[in-house]
Amino acid sequence: MKHLLEDLRSAAFPPRCGACGGPLGACELGFCGACAVTLLTPAPGLLRLAKGRLVAARALWLYGGAVRDALVRMKHQPSPAVVAQLAELLALECPTPPRPQGLLVPVPSLPLHWLTRGFSPPQELARRLSRCWGWKLAPALAMRGLGHGQAGRGGAARRRGQRLRLKGAGARQVEGRHLVLLDDVATTGATLREGATLLLDAGAASVQALVLAVVEPLPWR
Ligand SMILES: [Zn+2]
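Above: query sequence and zinc ion SMILES. Below: predicted holo structure tokens.
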């Protein structure tokens, strides 16, 4: 039913460019031609975790130009149509990983952001990508605290700079499974590293990191 409603909504509101909001041509997906020329794809690489562990990481685009505009629009004027198109592009460029069926784990948004925006971009991207891949969604991670600052984090977590924690059922959910950790933007890669470490420590068989956009210099190599 939900899918049908989404299809009806996109039929009633024809897609517009995710960056400039202009109309899209018949063969354009996500971005109009003028915005699409600003899209740059970075090289995939390996994120280094503690204890010598490595996690494969890739981003669809370098942060900047049309991607920055689309992400700003997505955060301040949440539009299901824009998120749907970004997820569709992600699915097109990042086909289902060639491994046994796994789980998609979105990086959680700050509860304060979730409350003010009404949705979480990574969760929404992951939900739609899971449909394209036929993978299950596993919201196994939660954010510590409520907002930007350190409020709500315990003393030990604060000292270690931790932002994430496993949800109650998170460990059981991910044990022995192949996971893709998904976020909208990576800057230093700290959140991805922390999430991947928690998931591997909880017994995940493997973790890969996938983000829509990454800020240069790349946090992986
Ligand atoms: Zn445009």
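Residues 6 and 80 are 8 Å apart (CA to CA).
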